[in-house]
Design goal:
The protein is 42% helix and 16% strand. It is an alpha/beta fold. The protein folds into two domains: 1-78, Immunoglobulins (Immunoglobulin-like, Sandwich), CATH 2.60.40; 79-346, Protein-Tyrosine Phosphatase, Chain A. The longest helix is centred in the middle third of the chain and has 15 residues, at 179-193. The relative contact order is 0.12.
């Protein structure tokens, strides 16, 4: 069903429901304690295309069952979750997939690193039933920014695609205190040597590298095998900011499940909204270290989120293999049985 309601957590315990089609249709809204809750609580009936609901106080992550007069019904949840200290923790559920199915809520998560999670944030994460964490960061990143522990029972896998642009690799190997100035000095040195390239080209090349480089293919192939394990879910994958490495991994999973390209781009671009304030603060810090406009534009390219970035990866794959599914089978060695297992686990 297109033009489903979208859900936004506007403030504590208050949720905004919106859809962008022109037709008004009566809907009943029920509160669920989990996606599988069989005894949801009736909240209201409305025909509005936009409405708010207050559900507090609650001590669980809420989901909402929407029932329509034509016997259509579906569950929705908030996309970006309110994990204190983190800015890009998201649920990958709810997208329409192949054969009229939908990606399950509460099974596949993506995020920035867990280093910044507060005690309240960790307490929230404990309630999400995460069984598996896939950490795309390098040894240097993990050493500098160790994740907070959610639960000792969670299995964590480090799968570094080793696909950073040269400048970012230099940043990651610098000390925590000096990484910004080290990155700036690297870029200035390139500029002075005449080897400074267009910043967008650097990032676009990185996204092509995700699809083609041996280290990247090995890491993402292992990610898919882990995600397909019967006891893996709920699975959280993350890098540092939850944009590039995580964006490619999320695209592979959703692509295998049959999510359309327009929704793959949509999922990727939630990062732009989630990191807007973080990026402003980051650029303010850079401006204290350099006033070179060209260098600042180059720096912004590494934290910017543009749909063309992930589209480059998708288009690179489609041009050569015809589909994301064929790519993971032919290039990553993922079997048909494993793909079918993922669809059984993550679609409903």
């Amino acid at each position: 069903m297109s033009n489903k309601y979208e859900l936004t957590h506007v403030k504590k315990n208050e949720f905004l429901f919106e859809k962008d089609d022109s037709a008004e249709q009566e809907v009943e809204v029920y509160l669920k304690k989990s996606p599988a809750d069989q005894q949801p609580e009736f909240l209201l009936k409305t025909s509005k295309k936009s409405f708010s609901i207050h559900v507090g106080p609650i001590d669980y992550r809420p989901y909402f069952l929407l029932k329509f007069a034509d016997d259509l019904a579906y569950t929705i949840g908030e996309r970006t979750l309110p994990v204190d200290g983190m800015n890009n923790f998201r649920d990958m559920g709810g997208y329409e997939a192949e054969n009229g199915k939908t990606v399950k809520w509460g099974m596949l998560y993506r995020s920035d690193h867990i280093y910044n999670a507060t005690d309240a944030g960790v307490a929230y994460l404990k309630k999400l039933n995460i069984h598996t964490i896939i950490d795309y960061r390098s040894d240097e990143e993990i050493e500098k920014y160790p994740n907070k522990t959610i639960d000792e029972a969670i299995k964590t896998y480090q799968l570094d695609p080793a696909a950073h642009a040269a400048e970012l690799s230099a940043q990651f190997t610098a000390s925590k205190e000096n990484e910004d100035i080290h990155l700036i000095n690297t870029i200035i040195e390139q500029k002075e040597k005449g080897i400074f390239v267009n910043q967008a080209d650097v990032v676009l090349e990185q996204y092509r590298t995700f699809a083609n480089k041996a280290n990247s293919k090995e890491a993402f192939a292992q990610m898919l095998r882990i995600t397909a394990s019967p006891d893996a879910a709920a699975v959280l994958q993350h890098c540092r900011g939850g944009k590039d490495r995580t964006g490619f991994g999320a695209m592979l999973i959703l692509g295998i499940l049959g999510v359309k390209k327009e929704d793959l781009l949509k999922d990727y671009m939630f990062t732009e909204e989630n990191r807007r304030e973080r990026n402003r603060v980051k650029m303010d810090g850079y401006k204290k270290l350099t006033d070179d406009k060209e260098v600042l534009e180059h720096l912004y390219s590494f934290i910017d989120t543009r749909s063309e970035f992930i589209a480059t990866s998708i288009d690179t794959i489609i041009a050569k293999y015809g589909s994301i599914e064929k790519y993971v089978m032919e290039e990553l060695g993922i079997t048909r049985n494993l793909i079918d297992s993922m669809k059984d686990m993550y679609l409903e």
